[in-house]
Amino acid sequence: VQLVESGGGLVQPGGSLRLSCAASGFSFSAYIMRWYRQAPGKEREWVATISRSGGNSNYADSMKGRFTISRDNAKNTVYLQMDSLKPEDTAVYYCSFSSSGNDYWGRGTQVTVSS
Predict the structure, then answer these.
(1) How far apart are CA 98 and CA 68, in angstroms?
(2) % helix / strand / coil in the chain, to the nearest 5?
(3) What are the tens digits of pLDDT across the range 25-49?
(4) Which of 96, 91, 88 lies closest to 35 in space, CA to CA?
(5) Contact 86/13 with Cβ under 8 angstroms?
(6) DSSP state, 88?
(7) What is the pLDDT of residues 90-107, one digit of tens each?
(8) 80, 35 in Cβ contact below 8 A?
(9) How many CA atoms lie within 13 Å of 9's alpha carbon, on the beta-carbon side?
(10) How far is CA 28 from CA 11, 60, 69, 92, in A?
């Protein structure tokens, strides 16, 4: 099982980034996928979830209207489009899924929002 996040970087407030998470080693389309983030000195927090088909998604309140989660099951990839970024969005972003009581995580990608 492997999850590899990419797409992070430095962006100015109000800017946008699109994160990707490439999955391998498991039946990607069979699993609900999630994005989390962890800011320095803070606990990891849930960002968004997407259903197996991609037809349903939900978001943490502070991300609603700014972030969009999507997936391409043909490419085994889940995405996080982040718009109207704020300095408080600075964090390491992780994708994750759960299977048989185990949680799987990538290594994360750093997002820094700063002028």
Answers:
(1) 21
(2) 10, 55, 40
(3) 999 999 999 999 999 999 999 999 9
(4) 96
(5) yes
(6) G
(7) 999 999 999 999 999 999
(8) yes
(9) 11
(10) 30, 23, 15, 22
